[in-house]
């Protein structure tokens, strides 16, 4: 075998160079000269870029609206160093869809919740209108695909805080009409540590009827369990990782991960040091675990950029997604599972929610329930 290898790959010895001019710095390459070794990390990163070109990232949470609110001037199409997200970096990171959070700042007076949410919604619409070459508004799975076909990043509104409803289903419908797509069920009397009240269940049913997605990140286990029992549409966790790996309050225990998987929900793992760790490998550990417990059809990504959170090494801004995909390729993730992680799973949830809403609207009129009537 050794003789055969020598025949196939002859080694150039010093004696073989006698016929070459010693002063020629670039001798003609001869047969049998070994090709330079390829850096495996470079190869993985190239594969990651190629995969993301076909299956871009659907990012489940961005704090960009609130981050831009305090800037006197910005240009996201040229690039904006004051934030983690701009159009050039969205393209470099292959981000095809972005959920813009309308969450409320801590300490905001309760009577300002609706107005502040509307102001942020208006700001997102202004941002999109001001950057038409890079961004496009979207509500449905079809509109997300249309934006991608045009080379734009689809921007979806949400999640918003439950407090933005001000205990009113009428306000829920108006926010939906304005484009809101996701609401987080926390911080209200009807979705608390004790779970959903009767009015809370009516909110879930009306969200299903409208096609507004339910976000359970930060919700109590009691609320999560009841939502999974009541909701006819898939639910999201827009910023949740594995609690067994990192005991953050917004991370989920394995039994809830399994329940979300059984219900065909979607757990979008955040890229924050507090929830997933300080390195890209830590984030990959959480993705491995959620995929193993909930299933490959129930795991997604949530950059959580521009929220003031610290991010893991190599994942400092929204352009860095290829580094995470390269790490998952190194771990043996298949192209199919990666396509589900980045794009396919969120598309499924959007399509299913739209289908559920159309079916519900044929059976159910808009709810006129009042919180005082059900929880009084």
UniProtKB/TrEMBL annotation:
EC code(s) of this entry: 3.4.13.19
Pfam family, one: Peptidase_M19
Keywords, ordered alphabetically: Dipeptidase, Hydrolase, Protease
Top-tier EC class: hydrolase
Residue stretches of biased makeup (Basic and acidic residues): 1-10
Residue ranges of the TM segments: none
Domain of life: Bacteria
Location of region: Disordered: 1-41
Compositional bias annotation for Low complexity: 17-41
GO MF annotation, one: dipeptidase activity
InterPro entries xref list: Metal_Hydrolase, Pept_M19
Magnesium found in the keyword field: no
Keyword Hydrolase set for record: yes
PANTHER family: DIPEPTIDASE (PTHR10443:SF12), MICROSOMAL DIPEPTIDASE (PTHR10443)
Designated name of the protein: Dipeptidase
Biological source species: Streptomyces broussonetiae
């Amino acid at each position: 075998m050794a003789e055969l290898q020598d025949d196939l790959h002859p080694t150039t010895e010093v004696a073989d160079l006698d016929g070459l001019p010693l002063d020629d710095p670039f001798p003609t390459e001869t047969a049998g000269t070994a090709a330079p070794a390829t850096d495996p990390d470079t190869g993985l990163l190239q594969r990651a870029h190629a995969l993301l070109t076909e299956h871009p990232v659907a990012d489940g949470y961005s704090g960009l609206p609130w981050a831009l609110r305090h800037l006197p001037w910005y240009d996201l199409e040229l690039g904006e160093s004051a934030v983690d997200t701009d159009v050039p970096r969205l393209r470099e990171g292959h981000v095809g869809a972005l959920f813009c959070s309308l969450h409320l700042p801590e300490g905001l007076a309760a009577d300002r919740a609706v107005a502040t949410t509307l102001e942020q919604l208006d700001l997102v619409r202004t941002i999109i209108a001001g950057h038409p070459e890079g961004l496009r508004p979207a509500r449905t799975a079809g509109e997300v695909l249309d934006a991608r076909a045009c080379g734009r990043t689809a921007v979806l509104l949400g999640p918003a805080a439950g407090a933005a409803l001000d205990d009113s289903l009428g306000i829920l419908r108006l926010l939906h009409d304005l484009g809101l797509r996701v609401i987080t069920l926390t911080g209200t009397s009807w979705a608390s540590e004790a779970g959903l009240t009767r009015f809370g269940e009516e909110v879930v049913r009306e969200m299903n009827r409208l096609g507004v997605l339910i976000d359970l990140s930060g919700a109590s286990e009691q609320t999560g369990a009841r939502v999974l029992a009541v909701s006819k549409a898939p639910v999201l966790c827009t910023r949740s990782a594995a609690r067994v790996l990192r005991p953050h309050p917004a991370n989920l225990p394995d039994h809830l991960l399994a329940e979300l998987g059984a219900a065909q929900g979607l757990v979008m793992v955040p890229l924050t040091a507090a929830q997933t760790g300080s390195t890209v490998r830590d984030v990959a550990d959480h993705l491995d675990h959620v995929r193993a417990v909930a299933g490959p059809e129930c795991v997604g990504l949530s950059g959580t950029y521009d929220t003031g959170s610290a991010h893991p090494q190599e994942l400092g801004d929204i352009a860095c997604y290829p580094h995470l995909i390269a790490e998952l390729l190194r771990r043996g993730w298949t192209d199919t599972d990666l396509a589900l992680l980045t794009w396919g799973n969120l598309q499924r949830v959007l399509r299913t929610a739209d289908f559920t809403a159309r079916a519900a609207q044929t059976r159910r009129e808009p709810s006129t329930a009042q919180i005082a009537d059900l929880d009084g």
